[in-house]
TrEMBL record:
Keyword Membrane included in the entry's annotation: yes
Protein's UniProt name: ABC transporter ATP-binding protein
A Pfam entry, by short name: ABC_membrane
Residue stretches making up the ABC transporter domain: 355-599
């Protein structure tokens, strides 16, 4: 499968390696406005023209009072009155156009950033996703982007507009009658000081609230996915209490935010009203002594009142700016996360399928002892792993739980990169291959199969969208997933979230069919058959065995029956492959292997291992999941296949 071109292209926001000051994060999102710049600039121009109309109306009022009203000029009154009305209507129309223009532009910006963010999440390595709660990602991709959109559509425009309005009107007021202008100017100072004082505290609270919203989203997601577990243990109350705690914490932070805003807003309401009282008193005295006209005083007060909203909203707009800076910061954390698994230069893998692991070591990021040292052997999930699999050969990977089998299989398609050593496919290091080339060469079916809220067909063709109906049918047959034909709409049946409406075994079989359908040269099965009953497993293995002749296979096996799919077996102990050989050889010579697959009770009394068996005999006895001492063809009393044909010895589990 080739990765969509969009995923491989760089987002409009260029990732930068180190974290820096927050306001630059918001600026870094501005390039997203580029495709909409014509609309956006028109919208800003219109906003400024309508600001002109807002300022013109009080000036026209002054002209009406000092001119036609004072001189009883009826005609002049009509002319100026109609002009003022025209300006008012124009202002309203311009507001409408501005809103209409801005909605499309900023919605488009939000959509574009969201798409790039999603693409980034797809590219980011498993190590990133291991460290991030999904709710945090969800709240960034949904809430934070909406916050940024609101700022770009509304906040930034009004911030510019209001600051301009405050500066221009204060200038006009000073020009009209400077003593009153100074009073107004003085009233702006405490407001500015308050705004700056609150800004820092508000930013901290905004960030806390946004992070806590991510925690709440994670809580909802986890309880929805884990509903069965919660119900089966009867722990609804416990989960509710935990959620209650998370929501209450969010509530507390929001209340602290509101309290801060309330103090702030009170000040913003009180100061303009006090200023108005002073201006009215001083203005009336100035009119009385003839230093200004009545028209000037009315225009002055009208203009001064028109300052109340821009000044008051300045606080709100600055809060919004803070919030969107925090949101942009959180979004940038994803864009800036390191993508350490990147494309190699080779676009096409060779046709063979020879897989070679040389001295492979792997340590999870952060598992270095905390002091930059290697952290001792326990820090390594895998160490000194050597393994070669020839084209068409299948190796079973056997090991105790936690020995590193899944980690090893994840290294082949580069879900993680090796920490040391190398993995080669047909002689080419997997890091040299482009990711699409590598991932079309290797297909994996996982033990815990994830299915998507899509139709069965879409789920199956995830690795190969162009698969024909015949190929789909073939893959279904290999995976013994014929049950899909009995679903209400067959292959077009939409399966629920994570395929929840299917049983575990059904999901595993679909996951297997999906991997088979991808037609890989290397097929990795990570304990894919663990949820199947022995009979279904036998059927799948028979069909899969035929398919495995043509591909290189690495099959993680916990059960002896699965081992029988393989030509050879590799035993993984504590992150290292200690033995490689046929099943029969390992069974005969390696007590730990026998213990893992057969729970051999002779191990306890120190008896020597059984003699080496013929491979076919061993397969016969183990296909049903039970073990006989030696030489049996189809001997198993437990599952009704008869007694051991040669020795007649007891059949043991
Ligand atoms: N994301 C992770 N971060 C840190 N350690 C991890 C992570 N995933 C797995 N491990 C550790 O790596 C080791 C190997 O895990 P792995 O899943 O490969 O075991 P496994 O052999 O597949 O086990 P099982 O048979 O139970 O599936 C374990 O000790 C596990 O705790």
């Amino acid at each position: 499968m080739t990765a969509p071109a969009r995923l491989r292209s760089e987002p409009a926001i260029a990732p930068i390696p180190t974290r820096r000051r927050r306001h630059t994060d918001l600026l870094r999102l501005l390039p997203y406005l580029r495709p909409y710049r014509a609309r956006w600039i028109t919208m800003v121009v219109i906003a400024f023209v309508s600001l002109g109309a807002t300022i013109a109306i009080p000036l026209m009022t002054k002209a009406v009072i000092d001119g036609p009203v004072q001189h009883h000029d009826q005609r002049g009154l009509w002319v100026l009155g109609t002009a003022a009305l025209g300006v008012g209507v124009l202002e309203a129309v311009l507001w409408f156009i501005r809103r209409w223009l801005v909605t499309r532009a900023t919605m488009g910006v939000e959509r574009d950033i969201r798409k790039d963010l999603y693409a980034r999440l797809q590219i980011l390595p498993m190590s990133f996703h291991n460290q991030w709660q999904s709710g945090q990602l969800l709240s960034r991709i949904m809430n934070d982007l909406s916050t940024v959109r609101r700022f770009l559509s509304f906040g930034v425009v009004f911030l510019l507009l209001n600051v301009t309005q405050i500066v221009v009107i204060t200038g006009i007021l000073l020009a009209m009658y400077w003593p009153l202008g100074v009073v107004v100017l003085l009233s702006v100072a405490p407001i500015t000081a308050t705004v700056l004082h609150n800004q820092r505290q508000f930013t901290v609270l905004s960030r806390m609230a946004q992070d806590q919203a991510g925690v709440v989203a994670t809580g909802v997601e986890e309880s929805a996915l884990g509903l069965r577990v919660i119900k089966s243990f009867g722990r609804e109350d416990y989960v509710f209490d935990r959620f209650d705690g998370q929501v209450s914490e969010l509530f507390d932070i929001q209340v602290r935010k509101v309290r801060l805003q309330a103090r702030f807003w009170t000040l913003l309401e009180v100061i303009p009203n006090l200023t108005l009282i002073v201006v009215l008193g001083l203005g009336a005295a100035a009119v009385g002594s003839g230093r200004i006209t009545l028209g000037t005083l009315v225009a002055f007060i009208t203009m001064m009142l028109s300052l109340v909203w821009p000044i008051a909203s300045l606080g709100f707009l600055l809060s919004m700016t803070q919030e969107s800076m925090t949101a942009a910061d959180r979004v940038a954390e994803i864009f800036d996360a390191r993508v350490d698994i990147t494309d190699g230069p080779v676009d096409e893998a060779r046709a063979g399928g020879r897989l070679q692991l040389s001295d492979v070591g792997f340590r999870f990021p952060g598992n270095d002892g905390g002091d930059g040292s290697e952290g001792g052997d326990s820090a390594w999930a895998l160490r000194h792993v050597d393994l070669e699999i020839e084209p068409g050969e299948t190796i079973a990977l056997v090991g105790a739980t936690g020995s590193g089998k899944s980690v090893l299989t994840a290294l082949i398609p580069r879900l993680y990169d090796v920490t040391e050593g190398s993995i080669r496919i047909d002689g080419t290091d997997v890091r040299e291959l482009s990711l699409p080339a590598l991932r079309s060469t290797v297909a994996t079916a996982f033990e815990d199969p994830t299915l998507f809220s899509l139709s069965v067909r879409e789920n199956l063709t995830l690795g190969r969208p162009d698969a024909s109906d015949e190929e789909i049918a073939e893959a279904i047959e290999v995976a013994q997933a014929q049950f899909v034909h009995d679903l209400p709409f067959g292959l077009d049946t939409r399966i629920g979230e994570q395929g929840m409406s299917l049983s575990g075994g059904q999901r595993q079989r679909l996951s297997l069919a999906r991997a088979v359908l991808a037609r890989p040269r290397i097929l990795v099965l990570d304990d894919t058959l663990s949820a199947l009953d022995v009979h279904t497993e036998a059927l799948v293995e028979e069909a899969l065995g035929r398919m495995l002749h043509d591909v290189t296979g690495l099959v993680v096996a916990h059960r002896a029956s699965t081992v029988l799919l393989a030509d050879r077996v590799a035993l993984l102990e504590h992150g290292t492959i200690t033995h490689v050989g046929t099943h029969a050889q390992l069974l005969a010579t390696v007590p730990h292997y026998r213990y893992l697959l057969a729970a051999d009770d002779e191990l306890d009394d120190g008896a020597p291992p059984d003699p080496v068996w013929d491979t076919d005999d061993a397969r016969a006895e183990l296909r049903c999941g039970h073990e006989v001492a030696s030489g049996a063809e189809e001997a198993c009393r437990d599952c009704g296949a008869g007694e051991s044909t040669e020795t007649g010895r007891e059949v043991r589990r």
